[in-house]
Amino acid sequence: MAIIEEVPCADKHWKEQRLCQKLDREIQQLKVALSELETAKPKKATYNKRANVYFLEKRNVIVEIKKNELNNKEKKAS
To answer: What are the structural domain ranges in the chain?
Structure first.
């Protein structure tokens, strides 16, 4: 019979790599969302989707939320 050995380092490394890739994608999406919000008029209200529900919020509130999300994701990534 063949003996099967686990390689814990490779599995851990793979999970960390996937987590980093996921965080990178989310950071990129947040940067795109922020750049789109910067082009919106400051006093215009915008619909923001969270958990399949749309909320009507002012642009500066959304920008603040997205910047906080971006900072949190960048801290996790580093």
So the answer is: 44-78
For 28, the token pair is 């990129």
Amino acid 19: pLDDT: 83
Using CA atoms, how far residue 4 sits from 1, 7, 10, in Å, is 9, 10, 15
For residue 59, give both structure tokens: 């642009």
The residue length of the chain stands at: 78
Note the pTM of the prediction, 2 decimals: 0.45
pLDDT in tens, 35-63: 777 776 666 666 666 666 566 666 677 77
Positive or negative: CA dihedral 53, 56, 74, 36:
positive
Over residues 11-20, the mean pLDDT reads 80
Tokens 């940067």 sit at which residue?
A: 31
